[in-house]
Structures are given as structure tokens and as C-alpha cells.
Fold this sequence. Notes:
Radius of gyration: 17 Å
Shape: globular
Strand content: 25-35%
Bound molecules: zinc ion
Distance between the termini: 32 Å
Mean pLDDT: 95
Strand order of the largest sheet: 3-4-5-6-7-8-9
Amino acid sequence: MHVDHVGGLLADGLRRRLRPDVPIHLAAAEAEFWASPDFSRNSFPPRMPDVLRSAAGRFLDLYRSQLRLFEAESEVAPGVVVCRTGGHTPGHSVVCLASGGDRLMFLGDAVFPDHFDRPDWYNAFDHDPEEAVRVRIRLLRELAATREPLVAAHLSFPSLGRVAVAGNVFRFVPAEWEY
Ligand SMILES: [Zn+2]
């Protein structure tokens, strides 16, 4: 529920264009955390805590009746399974898509560009830094083993690719972009 992910749903006019009953799937741990957030493990610049708290609070107020909370995982539509990983935030989740024989994993904020070289690095927005590192390494290992494609919120264009292993670091192998 960081502002760069829920902020779009707070933009003026957007909500009126959504179906009023559109369900929003959210890990229960995320809703619980943001009701009273603890930033003691983050090192944010001065105004950041207020920005995060206020965006998350507005999101919960506006969309509470549409939230469909899940604990560990939930199939939100046929072939679309959301799984809580925690780490980055308590309810951070990844989404696994399956269609025919194809697979794609949306990693959210579990991985940023630096993390292929340094999966042990964490940033100010990782609320549980050690757990975020464990989650990241587990997901990168899994994707390197299965060769399944991934997409993530903060990777460079085209954001879609696969994971390779080079010695004890990972490599992002971007997908060919077809126009
Ligand atoms: Zn985030």
C-alpha cells in the first residue's frame, strides 16, 4: 500500500470511472499494518512517513467496502493467484499468472534493478529488511530454476524478462519487445 502503488486509485476522478463494486484483493496483514504503521525499521527522508501514512489511510477509507482480504494466498480469477510474501511490507504480495502452458510472475516491489547484482541490498522502503532479502533471494532462485518470465514494478523498460544465474549473482535477461 505504498503511495506509488495505491496512489493511482486516489487520483481525482479515477474512482468514479471504476465499477463501484470492483473487488480489490489485499493481504490482511497489509491492511492491518497500515491501520497503525510502524516505521521503526525504515530510514525515510523527513516528510515521507506522513505521505505514506496519509495515502494508505485515504486508500483504506475510500475502498474499505471493496477490499477482499486474504491471509496467505488467493485465486482472484481463474489462473491468477496472489501470494503474500511479506518482507518489503507485511502484506507485500506477488501475483502468479497461468494461461495455457504460459506462466508469468508479477513481483511487485520484491526486486529493484540493483538486486540482480546485490540481492542482499535493501532500501528505506523495505519494512523488514532481512525478510525482504530472504524473499527476494528465494523468488530469484525459483525464477532462475524454472526460467519462467517475471515482470516487476520498478524494473527498466520493458520490465519483463527472465532471471539467469552468473556465479553467485543473478542477471536480468530482458524480453525482446515486440511492437
Ligand atoms: Zn513499495
